[in-house]
Amino acid sequence: MAKRIDVSDLNVYYGAFKAVEGVTMTVEPRSVTAFIGPSGCGKSTFLRTLNRMHEVIPGGRVEGKVMLDDQDLYASDVDPVAVRRTVGMVFQRPNPFPTMSIYDNVAAGLRLNGVKGKKKLDEVVEKSLNGANLWNEVKDRLAKPGAGLSGGQQQRLCIARAIAVEPQVLLMDEPCSALDPISTLAIEDLISELKSQYTIVIVTHNMQQAARVSDQTAFFNLAATGKPGKLVEVADTQKIFNNPGVKATEDYISGRFG
Amino acid sequence: MSSVTGVSIADELPGPDRRHTLGGDGAGTGRLGDRLFGGAAKGAGIFVIGLVSLVGAFLLWQALPAIADDKVNFLTSREWSVDNASNLRFGILELLWTTIAVSTIGMLIAVPVGVAVALFITQYAPTWLSRPAANLVDLLAAVPSIVYGIWGLKTFVPVFDPVQSFLKDTLGWFPLFSDAGISGGSTILMVGIVLAIMVLPIVTALSREVFAQTPVTHTEGALALGATKWEMIRVAVLPFGKAGVISAAMLALGRALGETIAVTIILSTLAAGSDWTWSVFNGGETFASRIANNAGEFDSPAKTGAFIAAGLVLFVLTFVVNAIARIVIERRKAFIE
């Protein structure tokens, strides 16, 4: 599975407003890349261009190129729905489907793909819940509503739901910001495990989290309110945190602004 | 219409950020303005409750003597002869069937179409179109029912009659579609279709409100899994709006059950003693249209009592339908909180 992402000269627009400007970066397969930066700097917006979810917002469009291995995500013959089946996403707030059971939540993506056989579904549901470190906690209540779990469990359920369809890439938009420290730790451990199979990109406001889980870190910033966000620096996490190449990066991670 | 109960749409629809009003005793300050306003509000509330109770009591008080004098079974008889006060013979079976038949046909059409229109307005229509389209549908509710009646009789029925004849010819072997000998096409089916158009705005408006409230996190969750638009609606929007749609249908049903003037104008009445038929191509009278057709002849208490007894059944019927709608709304509230 796991593919390489190659972004070159990407501009993101909402209508006439340019939200992100000139991003060029590469994400290696089977690695974790963290996006850090102050609020409103466009890191979530950029993340959403990687599975074309920004197009859900009216007026959302891009200029530039996003390659997934040798496939251009924005080629005219590419269906955004197909992209989202290849590039999964986990959101800031856990969002299990409230009317569905735990089992049905995990199976939802497979059913959308037309998988019907109960045996196959059982198998994938167990595998995905195991993959999200949730199986032991929920195996006796798979038929109960997903919304009845704790926040941290719900987020792991959402991760299970995302990996059930075996995506190439997993995008996470501040997946721990609504969780307590123990649940956060559980998710971080999970990210380290998932890395062996997936390409992972995570947006986080938590500098320690970026330092703990990621191999590569990208720092985004914006010159002023109303100006587009820019990629300031992208490098190995070690380098960004110990020896950043740009002054703004150092100021941000040392807490001098942002 | 009693069925819409004068409750605002906003009140029917608990949203995620619906909050409790500050109604505790501690909120009142005991100042003059507070006491005046509190008293006025309490008075208005008691007045409305009193009014509804009095209507119910009046119906019972007028209807019960007539029902006691009834020489046939009130619930199971099809007879209706009330001119001779010493030999009252009246039953509601046929009225009940016609009322339920026209309302059911109305619902079968209005609910799917109304839900589809609401989905179009909230999910598919571009922004510049959705608001005008919503207002246009709401405008249907502003058309007086007498206008629907005239339009139905003079325009819709003649146009649709050939279709009806075709159905009669091809499906006539099935009792529901057998030829009942009504000429001109003023049948139960026609009235049902006109009623569907009349209640469409209720179904659409309420469904639209709940669909629009679907949390973005749910719709994005579905889309991020690679759902197409329709799949997203099936996985996120429809389950979220289900209870709202059910209550919308119930409120619309309450309106359809009580609709009077359009039914009175369009539907062919039957001669006394006509044969019973299940056909939707038959004529007939609903509770409301029978009362309206005879409103000029309430000359003796016994006769009036018979019609009021029919009105009482309609009152109970709409009351039950509205109560069910309320219960569904309450259960949805519990589910969201």
Automatic annotation (TrEMBL), chain A:
<dbReference type="InterPro" id="IPR003593">
    <property type="entry name" value="AAA+_ATPase"/>
</dbReference>
<keyword id="KW-0813">Transport</keyword>
<keyword id="KW-0472">Membrane</keyword>
<dbReference type="GO" id="GO:0005315">
    <property type="term" value="F:phosphate transmembrane transporter activity"/>
</dbReference>
<dbReference type="InterPro" id="IPR003439">
    <property type="entry name" value="ABC_transporter-like_ATP-bd"/>
</dbReference>
<dbReference type="GO" id="GO:0005886">
    <property type="term" value="C:plasma membrane"/>
</dbReference>
<dbReference type="GO" id="GO:0005524">
    <property type="term" value="F:ATP binding"/>
</dbReference>
<comment type="function">
    <text>Part of the ABC transporter complex PstSACB involved in phosphate import. Responsible for energy coupling to the transport system.</text>
</comment>
<dbReference type="InterPro" id="IPR027417">
    <property type="entry name" value="P-loop_NTPase"/>
</dbReference>
<dbReference type="Pfam" id="PF00005">
    <property type="entry name" value="ABC_tran"/>
</dbReference>
<keyword id="KW-0067">ATP-binding</keyword>
<keyword id="KW-0592">Phosphate transport</keyword>
<dbReference type="GO" id="GO:0016887">
    <property type="term" value="F:ATP hydrolysis activity"/>
</dbReference>
<dbReference type="GO" id="GO:0035435">
    <property type="term" value="P:phosphate ion transmembrane transport"/>
</dbReference>
<keyword id="KW-1278">Translocase</keyword>
<keyword id="KW-1003">Cell membrane</keyword>
<protein>
    <submittedName>
        <fullName>Phosphate ABC transporter ATP-binding protein</fullName>
    </submittedName>
</protein>
<keyword id="KW-0547">Nucleotide-binding</keyword>
<dbReference type="InterPro" id="IPR005670">
    <property type="entry name" value="PstB-like"/>
</dbReference>
<dbReference type="InterPro" id="IPR017871">
    <property type="entry name" value="ABC_transporter-like_CS"/>
</dbReference>
<feature type="domain" description="ABC transporter">
    <location>
        <begin position="5"/>
        <end position="247"/>
    </location>
</feature>
Automatic annotation (TrEMBL), chain B:
<dbReference type="InterPro" id="IPR035906">
    <property type="entry name" value="MetI-like_sf"/>
</dbReference>
<comment type="function">
    <text>Part of the binding-protein-dependent transport system for phosphate; probably responsible for the translocation of the substrate across the membrane.</text>
</comment>
<dbReference type="Pfam" id="PF00528">
    <property type="entry name" value="BPD_transp_1"/>
</dbReference>
<keyword id="KW-1133">Transmembrane helix</keyword>
<feature type="domain" description="ABC transmembrane type-1">
    <location>
        <begin position="96"/>
        <end position="325"/>
    </location>
</feature>
<dbReference type="InterPro" id="IPR011864">
    <property type="entry name" value="Phosphate_PstC"/>
</dbReference>
<feature type="transmembrane region" description="Helical">
    <location>
        <begin position="306"/>
        <end position="329"/>
    </location>
</feature>
<feature type="transmembrane region" description="Helical">
    <location>
        <begin position="173"/>
        <end position="200"/>
    </location>
</feature>
<keyword id="KW-0813">Transport</keyword>
<dbReference type="GO" id="GO:0005315">
    <property type="term" value="F:phosphate transmembrane transporter activity"/>
</dbReference>
<dbReference type="InterPro" id="IPR051124">
    <property type="entry name" value="Phosphate_Transport_Permease"/>
</dbReference>
<keyword id="KW-0812">Transmembrane</keyword>
<dbReference type="GO" id="GO:0006817">
    <property type="term" value="P:phosphate ion transport"/>
</dbReference>
<protein>
    <recommendedName>
        <fullName>Phosphate transport system permease protein</fullName>
    </recommendedName>
</protein>
<feature type="transmembrane region" description="Helical">
    <location>
        <begin position="44"/>
        <end position="64"/>
    </location>
</feature>
<dbReference type="InterPro" id="IPR000515">
    <property type="entry name" value="MetI-like"/>
</dbReference>
<dbReference type="GO" id="GO:0005886">
    <property type="term" value="C:plasma membrane"/>
</dbReference>
<keyword id="KW-0592">Phosphate transport</keyword>
<feature type="transmembrane region" description="Helical">
    <location>
        <begin position="133"/>
        <end position="153"/>
    </location>
</feature>
<keyword id="KW-0472">Membrane</keyword>
<comment type="similarity">
    <text>Belongs to the binding-protein-dependent transport system permease family. CysTW subfamily.</text>
</comment>
<feature type="transmembrane region" description="Helical">
    <location>
        <begin position="95"/>
        <end position="121"/>
    </location>
</feature>
